[in-house]
Amino acid sequence: MAEDQNKEETPTYKQELLRFCQTTTIRGVPRIVNAKHKGIRSVWLAFVIILFMGLFTCMILLARQYFDYDVIHPPRVLRDTPSPFPSITLCNLRPISTAGIKRIKELRFRDPRAFARNVNNFAAGLYYYRNRSHDYEIISNAISMGGYLESLPKDYSYSLGHMKNESVIQCMVS
């Protein structure tokens, strides 16, 4: 008798999955399970699948963009003066175009991140580990996009950037 009661109370995997789908906070999944008509259920299922595919596509594109290593971002304060409200800051613009990154790889130049790592290691070995932190700070200022472009052979840096139509041309605030 007690065994029969335990079998009735133990939920099956299908029941647990159904309960999870009904109570989850993943957008659209409860609507798939709770839809009364197959047509509406199919529409919600299509929406959820398409949106998840879009999510993963965006994540893959973002990861590929990150691993291009084309931005040097040393964390430092460039300006310490207060800005009037509202102020707009455009940041993290990719300084090197996609064609420029391909050109860097074709010419077998170091990418910006490898350049920054090499300069930092050189400066650390020369100054930081010898307790000359002021000199280390001065040379580490070369770790910038300007420093990278200056390290390239003459006239190559001009072909790596963006064209006018690829940049922010006009910005209006009303």
Tally of helical segments: 8
Structural class: mainly alpha
Query: Which parts are unreliable, with pLDDT below 50 for 5 consecutive residues or more?
Result: none
**H/E order of the elements?**
HHHHHHHH
Q: Specify the biggest β-sheet.
A: none
Keywords: Ion channel, Ion transport, Membrane, Sodium, Sodium channel, Sodium transport, Transmembrane, Transmembrane helix, Transport
Protein name: Acid-sensing ion channel 1-like
Family: Belongs to the amiloride-sensitive sodium channel (TC 1.A.6) family.
Pfam family, one: ASC
Describe the structure.
With 174 residues, this protein is an all-alpha fold. It has two domains: 7-66, no CATH class; 98-164, no CATH class. The chain has helices at 2-9, 13-23, 29-34, 38-66, 98-106, 112-126, 133-140, 145-151. The longest helix has 29 residues, at 38-66. The N and C termini lie far apart (76 Å). InterPro entries: ENaC.
Summarize the structure.
This protein has 174 residues and is mostly helical. Helices cover 53% and strands 0% of the residues.
Give a topology summary.
Elements: H1 2-9, H2 13-23, H3 29-34, H4 38-66, H5 98-106, H6 112-126, H7 133-140, H8 145-151
InterPro entries: ENaC
Subcellular location: Membrane
Transmembrane segments: 43-63
